[in-house]
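Build the 3D complex.
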Amino acid sequence: MLATVGAAALITALATALFSCAGATVALRAHRPGVQVLARRAWMTSALFTSLAIVSLVIGLMRDDFSLAYVASVSSREMETPMKWAALWGSQAGSLLFWTWTMSVLMAVFAWVTLPRIPWGAGHATALGSGILAAFLTALVFLASPFEVSRITPPDGVGLNPLLVDKGMLIHPPFLLAGLVSTSIPFVLGGAALLSARIDNAWLRSVRHWALLSWLVLSVGNFLGGWWAYTVLGWGGYWAWDPVENSAMLPLLPMTAFLHSMMVQERRGMLKLWNLGLVAAAFGLAVFGTFNVRSGLVESVHSFAESDVGSYFLILLAIVVILSIALLVWRGPYLKPDHDFDSLLSRESGLIVNNYLLTAIALIVLGGTLFPVFSELFDNSRITVGPPFYNRAVGPLLIGLVLLAAIGTVLPWRQAATPTLLRRFRSPALVLMVSLLALVAGGMHDPFALAGTSSAIVLLYVTLREYFLGARGAKVARNAGWVSAFSGLFGRDRRRYGGYLVHIGFAVMAIAIIGSNVYQEQVRTAVAPGESFEAGGRTLTYVGLRERPGTANGIETEIVAPVRVSKDGKEVAYLEPGRRLFENFPQQPTGIVAVDTTLRDDLYVFVQGWDADGVAEFHVFVNPLIMWLWIGGAVYVVGGLVAFAPSRVLAPERQAVGTPAIPQT
Amino acid sequence: MTMRLRRMFSSRRARLIAILALATGAISVLAVSAAGSSLSYYATPDEFAKQIDVEGRRWRVGGRVVEGTIVEENGRPVSFAIQSEDGLERMDITYDGIKPNLFGPRAFVIVEGVAESAGRLRASSVIIKHESEFLTSTEVATPSN
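Done.
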C-alpha cells in the first residue's frame, strides 16, 4: 500500500515536472503567457507529490513496514523514533529521495516567491528548473527507488549501520544534502539570465538571497560534518580530506567566491561572465558530489555502494558542464565589462584575488580528489594523495585568504590617493608586526602557525575597527549612545556588517584550525586499575572496567573504562570512554569517545582495548583550541543569518560608489 | 614587439591577469611539491600481489578483513589479513595504531602504509569504510536465545 502510494507519487511528480518543462518551453516559443502560468503551477505541484512520497517512506519507517526493502535494510523494530528518522537518509535510495524532495520544495518556494519578480526570465527559469527536477526524479523512479517491495517480508529489519546511530546523524546529513541541492537555484537563475540575455544586475538582485541561503546551509552542513566526525567517529580529528568530505566542501568554494565577486558586478559592472561561471561551477560540483559518493569512482570511506545511479549522474554532470559552457560562449557578446579597473589597489581587485584564491583551492581539492582517476588514465596505477598534500597545498592559500580578507576590508572601492592608503594600512601593519613579535616571544616558532595566526589577528583587528568606526560615525551623526549606534549598524547595512561577522568567525576558526593541527599532542599508555598517567597538564586516573546494559537502537552492552581527570590535585572531570557492542553486529564494536572540553584544549580520550586483568590501553589526544572552532563556526553562521535577513532600509553607502569605508581620522 | 607588449600591459586588467598568472605558477609548484611527499599507490590485494618491487613504497589497499586472522593483544589488533570480495590473494597487515570503530571480521578496511615484502604491509592507518549496505557476520533477524 505504502509502496504503491510512494511510487505513484514519484511518477506523478516526474510527470508534473516534465509537463512544467515542456509547458514553459511552449509558452516561450509560442508566446503564450497562459501556458507559462500552468507550467509554474505544475512546477510547484510536483513538490506536493514528492512530499507525499517522502511522507509515505516516513510512515513506512515509523510503522516498521519491512515489506519495503529500503525500510528493512536501514531500520529495525527496536530502533528509537529519532533513529528511524535518521534512517530516512541513511542509505542510497532514501538519501536520493530526501535530496529530490528538498530540491522540489526549494524550487516551489522559488516559483512562489521569486518567479513573479523576474518577469524577464520566468519562463526560462521554469523550463530549466523543472527540467533539472525531472532529471533527479528520473533517477529516483527508474534507478534507485526507495519503494521497492521485498519479495519476502522479513520479521525484522537489519537496523541502521552502527556508525550512523548517533544524534548527529539527525542534523548533519539533511543540512549537507539541502546545501548541495540549494546550489540548483542560483544555477537556474544564472541560466535564465543567460537564456533570456538579461545579463545586467537584475538576476544578481534575485540571486543574492538564494546564493546566501545555499552558502549558509552548505557551511552548516560542513561544520556539522566536522563536529560529528570529531565527537563520534573517534579518531581525534574533524577533517580527513577524504574524497567524499572534499566533495561536500567543493561547492562551498565557488559559492563563497560568488558572494564576493557579485559585489564587483553590482558596483562596477565587471566579472559578468565570471559570476555566471561560478554559480554553474557550484551546481556542477554539487552534482559531482552526488555522483562521486555513488559511483565508486574514487575509493572513499563514506561512499554508498556502487550502483547504476553513479553513471547516470555522470551523464547529468556532463550535461550541466557542456550546457553551462555552451550558454556562456553563446552569450559571450553580452558579457563585456562596463569598466576597467581604476587601480590595482582597490576593493575590486582585492575581491578578484579572493576569487582567485578560492578557485585555486577548489582546483587543488578537486585535483587531489580525482588524482587516482588521472593517474590510472596515464600510468595505469591508482595513485592517491593523502592529507599532507592538502595541508601543504591548501594551507598557505587559506592563510593568504585570511590576510586578504583583512587587506580587502581596508581597501577602498575604485582608487585612493597614496597618502590615504598609507594612513589606512598603518595600524593594521603595526598590529601584524606586534602580533608576530608577541607570538615568537610566546614560543611559537612554526612558520605556518606564525603566518596564519598573525594574519587572523589582523583580520580580527581590522574587522572590529570597522564596527568601531561605523558605530562612532553613527553615534556622532545621530547623537545616539554607543549601544544603539552599534546595534543600528546591523539594521542599516546587514549585508556588510553580517559579512564582517562571518569574517570574525572565519578568523577565529583559522586560529583554532592552526592550533589543533600544529600543536596536537598524543599520549598512548597501558595502565592497571588505580594507576595514573599524565596528559595535557592533567592527571588521569583509571578507575577500572565497568559494564553497563545497552539502551536501545541495537546497542547490546557498553563496556566503559572510567577515568578521573584532575588538575593541581582537584578533580576536574570524570570521563567514561569505552566500547559499545551491537546485537546485530557483535564483532564490530564502536568506540565511545570521552572528551573533557575547555576553552584552552580538549582532552580526547578513548580506550584501545583491555586484557583479562583489566589493564586498559588508553589513547589520549590533547587538541588545543578545538572549542574555538565551534565558537568561530557559530559566529560565522550568525553572521550569515544577519546578512540573510532583509534590510529594512537600503544602506546609503550602496548608492554612492567609491565612498571611503572608513571615515577620515 | 615591445610596443605591443607595453600596450598589452597598459590595461590594469591585463596587469592583474599577468600577476595572477605568475601566482598560478607559484601555486602549481607548491601543489606539485606537496603531492610528491604524500603519494601512495591504491590497489586491491590481488593487484598488490601482482606487483613487483613493492618494498619500501607507500600503498593504500582496500579489502575485507578475513575471519579468523585477527591477532589481538590487549584487545587491540596487531595483525590481520585482508582479501577482496571476489579475490584470491590474501594480504597480511601488521598494525600498531588505533583500533578503528567497527573493526572486526569481514569489515571493509582501507589500510595505508609501507610494504615490507610481497604480500605484507606495515600499516600506519586503518580506516573502516562505512558502507550504507552493511554486511553482518550474523544472520539478520535471528531471534537471540
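Chain B has a mean pLDDT of 75.
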